[in-house]
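Posted in: Protein Modeling Q&A

I'm a second-year student putting together a small comparison for a lab meeting, and my supervisor asked me to include a predicted structure for 3-keto-steroid reductase/17-beta-hydroxysteroid dehydrogenase 7. I've never done this before, so apologies if this is the wrong subforum. The sequence is pasted below exactly as I got it from our records. If anyone can share the C-alpha cell output, I'd also love a short note on what stands out.
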Amino acid sequence: MRTQLTLSCIDVTTVYSYSKAVVLCVFPCSGIGLALCERLLSQDPEGLQLCLACRNMRRAEAARSALLTSNPTAQIALLQMDTSSISSVISAAQEVRLRYHRLDYLYLNAGIMPNPQFDVKAFFKGLFSSSVITMFATGEGILTQKDGVTADGLQEVFATNLFGHFLLIRELEPVLCHEGRTSQLVWTSSSNAHRSAFNLEDLQHRGGAQPYSSSKYASDLLSLALNTHYNKQGLYSSVICPGFVMTNLTYGILPSFPAFLWTLLMPVFWLIRTFTNTFTLTPYNGAEALFWLFKQKPESLDPYAKYHSLTSGLGHNYTQPRKMDIDLETSESLYEKLLQLESEVRKKLQEKQKEAQNAHVHPAETDSS
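Accepted answer (user: helix_wrangler)
Welcome! Here is the predicted structure, written out as C-alpha cells:
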C-alpha cells in the first residue's frame, strides 16, 4: 500500500512493509552518518526503511537526494529533530511512534564540539614526542572547548551529545522493545572519551573545559547501563569509535587553518597510518564499525567493548573490539542521575506549556484609554 505522509513539513512517499528492517539514523546529513547510510543502502536498498533525523532540513533534503541518486528505489524518509532541544526530541519521537510499529536499529550519531580551542604550543611539543600518534588520534592535551547553554537551561554539548539521545531512547521504548525480537542502539563515541574528563558530580561539565570528551565518556557508560536495564526486553546497546576521520567536525577544530594546509597534512596522515590503524581518514572507512554492527547478532556483542573502525596501511578496513575504561557502578549512578534529570526537565516543560496555554486563554489586558 502506498501512502502519503507529512513528516515535519516534508512530504515523502513511502511504501510500508513490516518485513523490512527499520533504521533511524540521527544526524546523517554528512560525514560518517551519511557514509553509513550509503553503505547500508548499497548492501540491500530494497530491504530497508531508512529514516534520517536531522536538525537542518535543507541539509537533510540534500542528503536524501544524494542517497536516492545512487539508490533510486530506496525508501528514505526525513524527520526534523534537534537533540539539544527537549521539545524537539519529544515531538520527533511522537512522529516516529505514529509512523513505525517498531525500530530495528537506532544510530545515535549527533555530536558537536563547539568553539574548540587549539593549544598550538602543546601541538608542536607533542609533534616531536613519543606521544605524537596518540595526540593525533585522540586530541588529548591539545583541545579544549567553550560550551554554551540551551534554551532548556542545559549545557549544549551535554544536551546534544548525550541527554537528547537518552531522552529519545526513553520516548521510543514502545517501538524499540518488543517481545520475541531484538533492536539495536549504536552510539558513535570517540577515542577522545576520557575518564579524567568526566565527573558524576558535574554531569553536564559546567566547571570543565572538555565537555566533548566528558559527553563521549558518558555515552560509553550509558551504553553499559542501557544493556543492564533493557536486554531482557530485547534492546541492546553498543558503542563504536570511527577513528581519526576528516569530517566537518575535524576541520572545525582548526578553523584558522587555510584549506591548503589540510591538503599538505594529508600525506603526513597517510604516513602515520602505516604505524597506527586508527587513522581511518575517510567517512567511508570511519563508518566501518557502524556497518559491521548492523550485520551482527546483538546478543553476541560485548557490552564492555568499544568497536573500533580500523584501516591498515594498505587500506584494508576492519572492526576490532577494545575494552572500555568503564565500570558497572559508575554506569548505574549515571543512569539514575539521567532519570532524575529527565523527570525535572519534563516537569519544567509541562509548566511552560501550561503557562503558554493560560496566556492564550487569558491574554494580558491593556488600557483602552
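A couple of things worth pointing out for your meeting: The longest helix spans residues 328-361. The two ends are 62 Å apart (CA to CA).
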